[in-house]
Amino acid sequence: MQELEERIQSEGTVKEGDVLKVDAFLNHQCDVRLFDRMGAAWAEHFAGKKIDKILTIEASGIGIACVAAQHFGNVPVVFAKKAQSINLDGDQYVTSVYSFTKQKEFPVIVSKKYLNAGEHVLLIDDFLANGKALHGLIGLCREAGASVTGIGIAVEKGFQGGGDALRAEGYDVDSLAIVDAMDPATGEITFRH
Ligand code: 5GP
């Protein structure tokens, strides 16, 4: 998606440790109109596929998924929680995921009420790096007996391999921008086309 690539080029910053910061429009301040066009792009890619629900993970995935859902017939959006809370009652699907940015394990939790056997689920997230977060969400779907129809990602860091591994496993991964290289010294960012 050319618009997203241009925003990454002009407003993104490359940090040490393979971290790309896009706080100006995606991860802190949110450009809702951009999210809307991202949703339209995923809807075009996944046109004709059955999607009953969108599953994402807190926090940055929520806004993107909620805006995108409007392009999928306003299907419900469920976000996996990253911490136990007294608000989470009843039975839950729980797995553990290693966070690339926080460099620690954290739980990923969805109430059994909101993920059901036979549902066709679209996974959406802001970033795809090594694929740990997505594998966590895929594991929860598998436990619930739901099937993963596809995966919509805003920014994939292709050089970290998570996206290509998921494609090799047979998942339909639609990343709107794929960064193949980035240099913290020069700030240069190279996209895959
Ligand atoms: P993975 O689990 O694929 O290794 O990493 C994906 C998760 O880590 C995403 O949910 C995202 O929140 C975070 N993440 C990974 N790399 C980056 C990055 O370069 N920038 C930002 N802002 N978040 C990232």
Automatic annotation (TrEMBL):
**Which keywords label this protein?**
Cytoplasm, Glycosyltransferase, Purine salvage, Transferase
Annotated GO CC locations? cytoplasm
Q: Which GO BP terms apply?
A: purine ribonucleoside salvage; xanthine metabolic process; XMP salvage
Q: Which residues bind xanthine?
A: L20, N27, K157
Domain (Phosphoribosyltransferase): give its ranges: 41-157
Q: In which pathway does it act?
A: Purine metabolism; XMP biosynthesis via salvage pathway; XMP from xanthine: step 1/1
- Identify the main location: cytoplasm
According to the UniProt entry, what is the EC number of this protein?
A: 2.4.2.22
Q: Which GO terms describe its molecular function?
A: xanthine phosphoribosyltransferase activity
Top-level taxonomic group: Bacteria
Reaction(s) catalysed (UniProt annotation): XMP + diphosphate = xanthine + 5-phospho-alpha-D-ribose 1-diphosphate
Q: Where in the cell is it found?
A: Cytoplasm
- Residues given in the record as 5-phospho-alpha-D-ribose 1-diphosphate binding sites: A129, N130, G131, K132, A133
Write out the transmembrane intervals: none
Family of the protein in this entry: Belongs to the purine/pyrimidine phosphoribosyltransferase family. Xpt subfamily.
Subunit structure and binding partners: Homodimer.
Q: What's the stated role of this polypeptide?
A: Converts the preformed base xanthine, a product of nucleic acid breakdown, to xanthosine 5'-monophosphate (XMP), so it can be reused for RNA or DNA synthesis.
Q: What is this protein called?
A: Xanthine phosphoribosyltransferase
The record lists the lineage as: Bacteria, Bacillati, Actinomycetota, Actinomycetes, Bifidobacteriales
